[in-house]
Amino acid sequence: MAALRERAAQRPQRPHLTTAEMATALAPFPSALVAALCDSPRLEGRVAKVADGYASADASGALSDEQERLAAAVAGSLADAGLSPPTLASLSEDLGVDKRALTQTLEALVSRGVVVRADKDLWFAAAAVGEARERLCEALARLPQLTLAEFRDLVGIGRRDAQALLELFDREGVTRRVGDARVLRKSQS
Q: Same domain, yes or no, for 77 and 122?
């Protein structure tokens, strides 16, 4: 907890530690033991699991007042965009903020579960990703497989966004790529 609190104080825009960083802070414990400890019920409510590590539950998405205003604008913009979000560059231009500050804010929104990073410069509102995931799973429950073009048409978005989402779902373990198509992973059926 001390290591997590220290990180939050030093870097409020990225207040989490990766499992490897936690293991280093808690040497000589191995990463697997650290992950098991952080995920244990004894720390529930005190430690928050974020995309690539852990944070103190009270600081998992801590931002300054100015960053909070930016976060609200970013979250609103991404929610309005649905499954066709702007790139980092166009979001930066639209909101009149530099890319670094925007990226820090987006990382905080990811740790809060409001936003999902699908590609290096492409974020979606978490609700939109959930909707796309649900529609994909429903389609794959009826069909043996789905191509990129079929998914694109199913959710009514462009190729770039469809591809980013399918790759995200592959990484999440929802689907797997077989040739030019996606199929549900066995655990999903």
A: yes
Q: CB-side exposure of 185: number of CA atoms within 13 Å?
A: 11
Biggest CA pair distance of the chain: 51
Per residue in 130-164, pLDDT (tens digit) is 999 999 999 999 999 999 999 999 999 999 999 99
Among 56, 72, 93, give the residue marking a domain's end.
56
CATH number, domain at 181? 1.10.10.10
Per the structure, the count of domains in the chain is 2
Tokens of 119: 């590609």
Give the span between the Cα atoms of 54 and 123, in whole angstroms. Answer: 21
Beta partners for 178?
Answer: 181
Report which DSSP code applies to 56.
E
DSSP 52: T
Closest CA to 139 of 156, 155, 127, 160: 155
Residues 78/125, Cβ–Cβ less than 8 Å? yes
Q: Enter the pTM of the model.
A: 0.68
124 touches 157 (CB < 8 A) = no
Which residues constitute the domain of residue 120?
63-189
- How far is the C-alpha of 182 from the C-alpha of 184, rounded, in Å? 7
CB 123 within 8 A of CB 115: yes
